[in-house]
Design a protein that fits this description.
The chain is α+β, with helices and mostly antiparallel strands and about 800 residues long. The protein is about 15% helix and about 25% strand. The strands form 8 sheets. Strands 9, 10, 12, 13, 15, 16, 22, 26, 27, 31, 32, 33, 38 and 39 form a 14-stranded antiparallel β-sheet that branches. Strands 11, 21, 23, 24, 25, 29, 30, 34 and 35 form a 9-stranded antiparallel β-sheet that branches. Strands 14-17-18-19-20 form a 5-stranded antiparallel β-sheet, with no helix packed on it.
Length: about 800
């Protein structure tokens, strides 16, 4: 912040001028972006509408119009973030601007800037900072004669860009950093009598992009301050770690604490801080070339898959194969929520469905905001929805609510003795890139008949390394809501058949993107690299063999078996199966959204310009791609990243049209963006009750604990429970006798149904994906029949870096 970016020094002491502002101006790729900093005659440009006041420590007061020279060195060979920050602000607003710069090297928030509210000794540099701001405001006309004093002044914002010295004190400073920064903001607002003062927090840069954990923790603390509800729309966190340039390409390779003196780093930091400040400021603003700040920008929408209607009699479940692949090159953080192609299974009705009631089984492959241990590889959730989202059940021990007030946490029972279902969702093997994953739900007669219903919708998988039933929704999960709403008795999936006419779609709720404008106001956008699977011929298969079943496909044979008849093989299909056909065509509702809840704008992207929905055969749906706008590499095809805003002559309709990267002006800054895994707080462990009187401990497990290290980096602790004694069964409103009858039925399944046969009809094309091998378990000796593995804890091992990409 004090200003160590090098403008024009060269020679051996400055790495022959590499990474200086002079070098940027000489490079055609960057000259246009930084050209406003230099006059045509080679002198440094002066911005007369912006003034700077900077009191160097133990040196003269620097004041005057914005240009190079307001640095710790007091010369025109160096500059700090204030240079481009001031230009960004001046480009956007017509008023006079004063930047009061207070900066001293080697200072920490823990001691030097310690705010009064943090207790202890107030930091001397906090006191000095406040004093200098007050002195500047008291002497505006003296220091800046052109100041129009009749207009008064407004404190428009406060920038905090600091962190190095706290980062080297992990024992004391980092644990306190978040609260100290919160206190600093509140105290500055109080001491400057500006209770709503906008604040921009610049992320710690330095060469520590791949930093030790304590530096990651400091960055997380900075981001967490801006994310606090009390600071909504008044504090923003600006990421800067992408601006670090290599030491070898910088003028001061040994000065990591000064970002190696790299001019591009200093310029980009100031640019980002300025745009962050504009996002919080009110009042008229002029168009500015570059990234549009503080727009909540993302891509969202549906890919619609047309499919023929099914015979209504096939109402006992379904199965389908969907492609599994990493949609985004790098996981973009916990705002990311997107499903791969999936479906919604509702109850079937003879007439109209009940009014004011939504309940189904959805889920599937994808990424969710509440996933605690995400990677680029999708996970599978069961996605049971009780009426009107009163409860959600995603797997054994995974759902909504807390253990004190569970809202779906006990909605699913484990059935398989060979496959562990993690608390964070079912993992596929890392690195999956378009292989097909088969799954479906079929009703099994596992429970006694009850007035409210006894249907057990059971999840079946067909993967390369595991096949068969996994877990099932307990009827109680759906029936529980009828206690409060008796009108729903007999209307839910615990008692009604499934509607075979399911929608098949790909739902995207958040893919990050950024918008920018050039100096003429023309808008451009860039989305994070987004990919789809591709076969050798370049086509993308997304959905295959959507099959619906009637009771003769499986239910009838199992029911007869449990009643004393011959064992059922468990193989699903025969005359009880019907494959739905894809009709071709389809559409997309993908759009780029920006703004907050009140000002949100939604503009569609021209999906048809690069993608053609196709039925490759009656049982297979996917996309063909425009070779001119997409990029193909290995098993994936990457969609266009760059788009241009195009509207009609009246500006009433608009769309984003894909454009080549060389058609996007460099001044927008879009080409400089990188989409790395963000710095986020470490996720808490998933835990289950440990009270000796809880259903997890009484009667408790038969064996354990065991652990499994998963491909997502987490560790799962699990135990073996007798099937009827697992917590979900103990919380399902069943009598002991009912649970014991279920135990007998499940033991029959465990004995007769092997783990290596095809249960669901196998696919007719493609390869099958693998489930994470760590989840395929072997029952302990003596517990092979009638016992199931139940996860009780899932966590990241100590020291795991949450922002580091996981490699396959």
């Amino acid at each position: 912040m004090a200003g160590h970016a090098v403008a024009d020094l060269d020679g051996k002491d400055y790495n022959d001028g590499k990474g200086t502002l002079k070098a940027l101006l000489a490079d055609p790729k960057s000259a246009k972006r930084v050209g406003h900093l230099q006059n045509k005659d080679g002198t440094w440009a002066v911005r007369s509408s912006v003034w700077v006041r900077y009191q160097r420590e133990n040196a003269s007061l620097l004041k005057g119009p914005l240009s190079l020279g307001f640095s710790i060195y007091g010369d025109t060979h160096h500059f700090g973030p204030e240079l481009q920050f001031g230009n960004v602000i001046a480009d956007a607003i017509p008023q006079q601007v004063l930047i009061i710069k207070t900066a001293w090297g080697g200072k920490s928030l823990y001691t030097d800037f310690r705010p009064p509210s943090s207790g202890g000794t107030v930091g001397p540099y906090y006191t000095r900072m406040i004093e200098e701001v007050r002195a500047a405001l008291a002497n505006l006309k003296r220091d800046f004669p052109a100041y129009d004093s009749s207009q008064g002044y407004e404190l428009s914002g406060f920038v905090w860009y600091q962190g190095w010295n706290d980062g080297i004190d992990p024992k004391n400073a980092i644990p306190e950093y978040e609260q100290n920064l919160v206190n600093l903001i509140k105290d500055v607002r109080k001491d400057l009598d500006a209770p709503k003062l906008p604040v921009v927090i610049g992320e710690l840069t330095g060469p520590w992009v791949q930093a030790p954990p304590e530096w990651t923790a400091l960055r997380q603390a900075q981001a967490a301050v801006a994310a606090r509800p009390e600071f909504k729309k008044s504090v923003v966190f600006v990421q800067t770690h992408d601006f670090v340039r290599p030491a070898a390409e910088s003028p001061n390779p040994g000065h990591g604490h000064h970002e190696f003196g790299n001019a591009e780093t200093g310029f980009l930091v100031g640019d980002a801080l300025g745009k962050g400040m504009l996002s919080l400021m009110s009042g008229p603003q002029k168009p500015v070339a570059g990234l549009v700040a503080a727009q909540d920008e993302f891509l969202a929408g549906y890919l619609i898959v047309p499919i023929a209607k099914a015979n209504r009699n096939y109402n006992a479940g379904f199965s389908m194969y969907v492609a599994a692949w990493p949609l985004l090159r790098n996981y973009p953080g916990h705002r990311f929520q997107t499903g791969l192609p999936g479906t919604w299974m509702f109850a079937q009705y003879d007439g109209a469905a009940p009014k004011d009631m939504y309940s189904d089984i959805e889920g599937g492959l994808g990424w969710w905001r509440d996933t605690r241990f995400p990677t680029e590889t999708p996970k599978f959730l069961m996605g049971g929805v009780a009426p009107n989202f009163s409860e959600i059940a995603n797997g054994p021990g995974h759902g909504w609510g807390t253990w004190d007030e569970p809202r779906g946490l006990y909605g699913v029972a484990q059935l398989s003795p060979w496959l562990l279902f993690p608390l964070d969702g079912m993992n596929l093997k890392q690195g999956v890139s378009g292989e097909l994953f088969g799954y479906g739900y079929l009703n099994l007669p596992l429970c006694d008949i009850k007035p409210t219903g006894n249907q057990c919708w059971t999840l079946f998988f067909n993967a390369n390394n595991f096949k068969g039933p996994v877990a099932f929704f307990l009827p109680h999960f759906f029936a529980n809501s009828t206690v409060k709403e008796p009108r729903l008795v007999g209307q839910l999936l615990d008692s009604r058949p499934s509607d075979p006419d399911r929608h098949v779609q790909m739902e995207t709720q958040y893919i990050p993107c950024r918008m920018a404008s050039d100096s003429t106001g023309q808008m451009f956008a860039r989305i994070a690299p987004t990919s789809f699977p591709r076969e050798a011929n370049g086509d993308s298969v997304l959905v295959h063999q959507d099959t619906v079943y009637n009771k003769s496909a499986l239910y009838d044979s199992v029911e007869a078996w449990f009643a004393g008849g011959a064992p059922s093989t468990g193989v699903v299909g025969g005359q009880g199966a019907s494959v739905r056909t894809f009709t071709g065509g389809g559409r997309a509702t993908w759009e780029i959204r920006s703004g907050d809840d009140k000002t949100e704008k939604k503009v569609p992207i021209a999906w048809q310009d690069f993608a053609t929905p196709t039925a490759f055969d009656p049982q297979t749906f996917g996309y063909k791609w425009n070779a001119e706008t997409t990029r193909k590499k290995g098993p994936l095809v990457t969609l266009p990243e760059y788009f241009q805003w195009v509207s009609d002559a009246e500006g009433k309709t608009a769309k984003w049209v894909p454009v080549a990267v060389d058609k996007v002006p460099v001044e927008t800054g879009l080409q400089k963006l990188t989409w790395e895994r963000p710095v986020e707080k470490p996720e808490d462990a998933y835990t289950t009750p440990t009270d000796p009187k809880s259903s997890w401990k009484s009667p408790g497990p038969a064996a354990g604990p065991f652990t499994a290290r998963l491909g997502d980096g987490s560790v799962v602790t699990y135990f073996w429970y007798r099937f009827a004694d697992q917590p979900a069964l103990l919380n399902a409103n069943l009598t002991d006798a009912e649970r014991e009858r279920m135990q007998v039925r499940v033991e029959k399944l465990h004995r007769a149904w092997p783990k290596n046969q095809n249960y669901l009809p196998p696919p007719k094309r493609g390869k099958l994906a693998n489930i994470d091998p760590a989840l395929i378990v072997k029952p302990p000796k003596g517990l092979e029949i009638g016992y199931v593995p139940i996860a009780t804890r899932q966590e990241l091992p100590a020291g795991t870096r949450v922002n580091a990409p996981l490699k396959p």
